[in-house]
Target: Inner membrane protein YrbG
Amino acid sequence: MFDPLATPLLFAIFAAAALVVLTGGIRMTGQADLLADRTGLGEALVGGVLLGAATSLSGTIVSVTAAMDGRASLAFSNGIGGIAAQTAFLALADILYRRANLEHAAADLANIFQGALLMLMLALPLVAWLGPDAAILGLHPASYLLLVIYAGGVYASNRVREEPMWEAVETDETAPDEEDEEEEDAPSTRKLALSFAAIMAAMAVAGWVIASVAGVLTDRFEIKASVVGALMTAVVTSLPELVTTLAAVRRGALQLAVGGIIGGNTFDTLFLVMGDAAYREGSLYHAIGKDDVFWLAIGLCMTAVLTLGQLYRQRQGPAGIGIESLSILGIYLAAIAIQTIL
Model:
C-alpha cells in the first residue's frame, strides 16, 4: 500500500501517525487517574495494567503487522526496544520531579512486584532463543508461559496491593496514593470508559500505519531491522508512555507514573506472544539475530537497576536525579552507541 509513495510523503505519514499516538497518550493520563480513584484499584495497579496496556496498543499492532509481513527482527525488536526506551523515559521523569528521587517518593509494593515480574518475563525469550525450536499449535511454549505468567502476575499484583506483606517506610518525601478532588463537570464513568476505548482504537490504526511505513523504509534504505525496531518504531510508539509519565508526575500521581512504565513494559513482553502467533515461518524466537537479543539483555539490565532503585530508595541523588536513573540513562545511551556507531 505504501510502497509506491515518495520518501518525503512516507516520513510525513509516519509523523502524522506518531502525532496520533502522542495525542492519545496525553488524553489517557487524566482519564486513567480518574478511573483509578473511582474504581478504588489505585494508581499503581491502574497505571500498570490499564494505562500500560492502552498506551502499548500501537506498539502491539506494529509487532503483529511486522510479523505477518515476515519481518521477525522488526517485530521482536519493536517490543523489546520499547521496554528499554520507556525505562529511560522514567529516568527523565525523575529529572522533572525536583522534590526527591522519584523512586523514593513513589514507593509502592505493586510496582516493585511488577518489576521483578518483568525481569522473569524478559528472561523467558532468552531461554527460548537458546533452546530448541518447538511449537504447540503454532506457538512456541515460551509464548504460552508468557501469557500464563502475565495473567498470574496481574492477579498477584492486586493481591499484593490489598494484602501487603511488606510496606515502604514513609518519609517526608513519600507521596501517598490519594484520591484527587474531581471537577464538577467531570464526565461519567461510562463516558470516560467509552472515550478511553475510542482513543485506543485510533492508536491501533496509527500503529498499523507506523509498522507499514517502517517496513518500506527498512527496505528502501537497507537499514537493519533491529535498529529500526528498537530505535525508530519502538521510540515512536512509546511516546504515550513518555507523555503520560511526565504528565502524571506533574499531577503528583507518582505511583501512576512509575506503574504506567513498569506495567507498560510488562505488557510489551506480550508483543512477542502476538508476534509469534502472527509469524508463519516458524518460531519468532528462532528467527531473530544477536542484535535483537542484545536489546533483550539491555531491557533486562535496565529493569534490574530500576527495581533495585525502588528497593534502595535513595532520598536525593546528585543533581536532583537518583543513582538508578543516571545508571539507566547511561545503559541506554551506551546501547544506542553500540548499535549505531560501533
Residues 7-39 form the longest helix (33 residues). Residues 7-161+189-340 form a domain with the A middle domain of Talin 1 fold (CATH 1.20.1420.30).
